[in-house]
TrEMBL record:
Domain DUF3817: 2-51
Gene Ontology cellular component annotations, sorted alphabetically: plasma membrane
Taxonomic lineage: Bacteria, Bacillati, Actinomycetota, Actinomycetes, Pseudonocardiales
Domain of life: Bacteria
Protein name: DUF3817 domain-containing protein
Annotated organism of origin: Allokutzneria albata (Kibdelosporangium albatum)
Keyword annotations from UniProtKB, A to Z: Cell membrane, Membrane, Transmembrane, Transmembrane helix
Length: 86
């Protein structure tokens, strides 16, 4: 599920960068660069989860959660998770 793994990872990493910047130096340049990257990655996670056939409803709903939704959705569609469920 590489189509979801890459934007979910980018979303999580960019969130960490934004939060680290917020609690440390709060550089406007870091915010102006990583903010749009985070937003675009979030939109990609939502689109991939909604448009991919066979994605469970729970994973689609989890993808709507900002920040960690991509990682949760990825966990819900992982092959190991499906083998345990059914």
């Amino acid at each position: 599920m590489t189509a979801l793994r890459i934007p979910a990872a980018i979303e999580a990493v960019s969130l960490v960068v934004l939060l680290a910047n917020l609690v440390t130096v709060h550089a406007p340049t870091v915010t102006s660069v990583s903010g749009p990257i985070h937003g675009f990655a979030y939109l990609m996670v939502v689109l991939v989860a909604l448009l991919r056939e066979g994605t469970p409803v729970r994973a689609r709903l989890a993808a709507l959660l900002p920040g960690v939704g991509g990682l949760i959705a990825l966990r819900l569609v992982s092959p190991g998770r499906r083998a345990q469920a059914g």
